[in-house]
Amino acid sequence: MSSESSKKRKPKVIRSDGAPAEGKRNRSDTEQAIEIEERRIQSCVHFMTLKKLNRLAHIRLKKGRDQTHEAKQKVDAYHLQLQNLLYEVMHLQKEITKCLEFKSKHEEIDLVSLEEFYKEAPPDISKAEVTMGDPHQQTLARLDWELEQRKRLAEKYRECLSNKEKILKEIEVKKEYLSSLQPRLNSIMQASLPVQEYLFMPFDQAHKQYETARHLPPPLYVLFVQATAYGQACDKTLSVAIEGSVDEAKALFKPPDDSQDDESDSDAEEEQTTKRRRPTLGVQLDDKRKEMLKRHPLSVMVDLKCKDESVLHLTFYYLMNLNILTVKAKVTTATELITPISAGDLLSPDSVLSCLYPGDHGKKTPNPANQYQFDKVGILTLRDYVLDLGHPYLWVQKLGGLHFPKEQPQHTVIADHSLSASHMETTMKLLKTRVQSRLALHKQFASLEHGIVPVTSDCQYLFPAKVVSRLVKWVTVAHEDYMELHFTKDIVEAGLAGDTNLYYMALIERGTAKLQAAVVLNPGYSSIPPIFQLCLNWKGEKTNSNDDNIRAMESEVNVCYKELCGPRPGHQLLTNQLQRLCVLLDVYLETESHDDSVEGPKEFPQEKMCLRLFRGPSRMKPFKYNHPQGFFSHR
Amino acid sequence: MERPAPVAVPLGQAEVFQALQRLHMTVFSQSVSPCGKFLAAGNNYGQIAIFSLSAALSSEAKEESKKPVVTFQAHDGPVYSMVSTDRHLLSAGDGEVKAWLWAEILKKGCKEMWRRQPPYRTSLEVPEINALLLVPKENSLILAGGDCQLHTMDLETGTFTRALRGHTDYIHCLALRERSPEVLSGGEDGAVRLWDLRTAKEAQTIEVYKHEECSRPHNGRWIGCLATDSDWMVCGGGPALTLWHLRSSTPTTIFPIRAPQKHVTFYQDLVLTAAGNSCRVDVFTNLGYRAFSLSF
User: Fold this and answer.
1) Banded pLDDT at A114 (limits 50, 70, 90)
2) Does a cis peptide bond (omega within 30 degrees of 0) precede residue A183?
3) Start-end of the WD repeats (chain B) (predicted)?
4) Given its phi and psi angles, is residue A112 left (phi above 0), alpha (psi -120 to 50 degrees) or beta?
5) B1 touching A (Cβ < 8 Å)
6) Do B78 and A496 touch (CB under 8 A)?
7) Which phi and psi (to 5°) does residue A336 adopt?
8) Mutate to test the interface with B, among A598, A615, A618 (most CBs of B within 10 A)
9) What's the pLDDT at B5?
10) B110, B131, B128: which is closest to B186 by C-alpha?
11) Across residues A118-128, what is the average pLDDT?
12) Contacts A–B by Cβ distance under 8 A
């Protein structure tokens, strides 16, 4: 552009140059023209320099740019290299970490410990020399050994499997053989039945019993086993049987699935019935009670035959929820008994077995745990239900092997055979004595009610030939009435008059004298003697508190009872005591000293032979009868 | 008054028998040991029980202290009388008198030191010995009982020296009159006889039942108890309890007690008496009125 401008200027300049030829305007015009020429040359030079400079500047600029460009290129190349290297480094690091984290499968295997390895592995695997130093080789060797072992075990496993198969096949074969045997055995047994009956060896019957016995609950089972054993070994008069429904017993152990199906059906049925009638709370409680007192469907019956053909039938039940055994008793005699009025309680099923062992009255449950169960359903005591369920005597629990330590509830049923066995013999003997003594009393009461004291011929020696006082009355007395009598206070205070005893009143008369005797009959008769308390009404009322002789008479029958027991088993005790009372009354009345101030003869002349009428500081009458001399003396 | 009904304990045969025995037991005699710490009691079964008085009377006495320390069977028949010398306990019952050493008596299985039986006339029945009396001056023991005689036994030699006869029925009780050594005996025949020990003869007889003031025919004529204070004597039993003046043999005071008396003793100026059938021990003055009664 500057060249263009300079070119443009030049023409201008030339034009302007064309003008000066004219002339001389003057000298100034020539000078000016020379100056202008000079200046024009100068400006052309200047323009040239300017262009050169401009050119130089441009070149310099270009060079500079090129240099920068080059340097920049280099830097970029380095930068790229750097990036590449960094990238590689990162990559390598990743690889390294990967390698480091690499877990080879062999570390998951639990290898045997080093010592074991060196011990067990064969030398060609363990290569001790090499492996000791080199852990890599060691691990390899161990892996080898592991592999060896596994192969061997796999072999063994396969062998065992094949063995098992073989044996299973053999079992199958044998089972088939046995099942083919069963029907043949059955037929043989059927054929042998008539032979058994002919020979009186009821094995089949016993076998069936053992079958049903399998379904008995443990205590009843113990009782059954022990009773059968005792019956076979010691006592042929004892027979044991199982009664009840075996199906129901089996039903108790039905698996729950079946019962669930039944439940759904029964629920549906129940819903229908509940629409008609809602069970009240009382009925629900009642049902709960019935559930708690439920009996096991099977029961054991034991029959004891006594010498006189009377039989004691005992039925033993097991109360499942309460875990106790109860018994119901019945006595049947060979001939029909006519029960005298006073003997009502003697053989009643409720009281015939009461107090077989002292204090065992059977009205309370022996298992202390039952009290908590009773509280839940509102039962006060078992006494209300004993008539229906039977009595839970302690000896029954012992026969069933159930042992209830005092004050400790027992949660598990442990039926102990040794406990049952040790009690079996004593209890059976006691039961027999009990039945026989009760039957003897039964007969005696029948006679007593008619006013006759039945003294057997082998006890006649205890009494003189002539006895004038007579028994006129023999009645039962209630427990409360006995406690109310004024002359029985001593016995009541001594704790001998409990509610398990039976009470009677006898009246003996002679002339105007009446002797009342209140009798306490302990259930353990005749090993525990009856206790008499006397009250004599003759010339005033005399009891043991105001007349020492009445006390002596009581002592003669209460304390000296052993002489009156008679021949074993001593069932004559009561009648002998009553007869002795008659004799004592005779002696008392006849030896009463005559009152000289009163006129008239003695009411009872002395007929008894006595050595002395009074003896000792208490002036006792001679109450002791001496046989066979027949006189009376003092003790 | 209502008594709470006692709970009947489950009783076996042995417990029932023991309870019956205890109900019919009578304690007939007792004697205190010379040291005063023990009491021996004899009952109608022939057993002697030794009680520890110091334990039972101490402030820490429990129920067990009131039970006997030891009980043993002393005689076959009842033990009717007992008396203590300074070393021995003498017990008598059915016809025999036995001596036990106080020092040994607490050991188990104690055996008697000696036993003697006075010479009896009859052999059909062995008579009982109802009363024992120690005469310290002569060191002898007097026994009296069922055979109506008083036997004297020398304690050193054990021989029976005298037998005093006179009673027509058995003798209940004995008493010693210190001054002139005389023994009084009361018997079933209703007479109180005084015996002189030196001459061995009956000195005086008082037939109590014949005196109208004191006789009670409806009770009988037997004399159950005797006590003497040298000039005076108290006796009772069937007849009423009466105070007698011995020299003149006259009844001076009659004590108003209805029941027949079993025991009586003089104590300083008072007369203590106990009846068998009541629970009281009555104390009278000599003038005949009842001062007070001790009762159970």
Assistant:
1) confident
2) no
3) 164-205
4) beta
5) no
6) no
7) -70, 130
8) A615
9) 46
10) B131
11) 72
12) 104
